[in-house]
Write a structure and sequence with these properties.
The protein is an alpha/beta fold. Helices cover about 40% and strands about 15% of the residues. The protein has one domain (about 5-249): Spore Coat Polysaccharide Biosynthesis Protein SpsA, Chain A (Alpha-Beta Complex). The protein has 10 helices and 9 strands. Strands 5-4-1-6-8-7-9 form a 7-stranded mixed β-sheet. Strands 2-3 form a two-stranded antiparallel ribbon. Strand 2 and strand 3 form a beta hairpin. Helix 3 (about 80-90) crosses helix 5 (about 145-150).
Length: about 250
């Protein structure tokens, strides 16, 4: 089974331009994300999927300099970008990763992949009924499900956010949502705004002397000891990008 992690990334973010290359305690954000995925041995390949826009040339040059696989596709139709990227790399299963999540947890991702592999599911995630912190969310789905979505999705939100057509059509796809032992969905560990970037920098700086690959529980322990860090981006709304594109439907 060819399991391909596709990291969607572009420089021309409307809310925080060039965030994928922003410095995060000595390394660009995109590199931090890649380091979260690389230790997962059941993933066959990792590809950064960006756009044909000139604004993403810098990201492509970075990928080349680091010998990171990349793919260029549609800037706004991210579903199309994912489909052609997955097809080009002969993916049987796709792990969807967004480049603004530097705290992705390898254990959570492995759990999602194994749920899909060991059961007859088309799509597995922890996002349909969110209980994990935003930024620990993960989606894993079969290529054939992505292909159906690519051929049938019509709405702007379905094309921009890749998977809504799948998880909105439970009669067509076998879906499974896994949950954490408690609801932590109010926690925001993703990067859309400068406040988010400052939060991430604070976490990485505190963790610097502890371990290279800290996990979700390590961050929870840190925030429990230093609640002031969570105050940095307390006023930002969860899933604002998806809510905005829904207005375009």
């Amino acid at each position: 089974m060819n399991i391909v992690a596709i990291i969607q990334a572009r420089c021309n973010s409307s809310r925080l331009k060039d965030k994928v290359l922003a410095d995060l305690d000595g390394e660009p954000l995109i590199e931090r994300v890649l380091k979260r995925i690389k230790p997962i041995k059941i993933i066959s390949n990792i590809v950064v999927a960006t756009s044909h826009s000139v604004s993403d040339d810098r990201l492509v040059e970075w990928c080349k300099s680091k010998e990171v696989n990349y793919f260029r596709g549609s800037e706004l139709n991210v579903l199309e970008r994912y489909y052609y990227c997955a097809k080009a790399h002969a993916a049987d299963v796709v792990v969807r990763v967004t480049a603004d999540d530097p705290f992705k947890d390898p254990l959570v991702i492995c759990h999602a992949i194994n749920l899909l592999k060991n059961n007859n599911y088309d799509y597995v995630s922890n996002t349909i009924e969110p209980t994990y912190p935003e930024g620990i969310d993960i989606e894993v789905f079969k290529f054939k499900s992505l292909e159906v979505a690519f051929n049938e999705a019509l709405l702007v939100s379905e094309k921009e956010h890749v998977t809504p057509y799948i998880w909105k059509n439970s009669e067509k796809f076998s879906l499974f949502n896994f949950k954490y032992k408690e609801n932590l969905s109010h926690l925001r560990w993703t990067i859309d705004y400068f406040e988010d970037l400052e939060f991430a920098r604070a976490v990485f700086q505190k963790m610097r002397s502890k371990k290279e690959q800290f996990l979700m529980q390590d961050i929870l322990n840190l925030l429990s000891a230093h609640p002031e860090i969570s105050e940095i981006q307390k006023n930002v709304v969860r899933n604002e990008g998806y809510l905005y594109s829904k207005q375009e439907d």
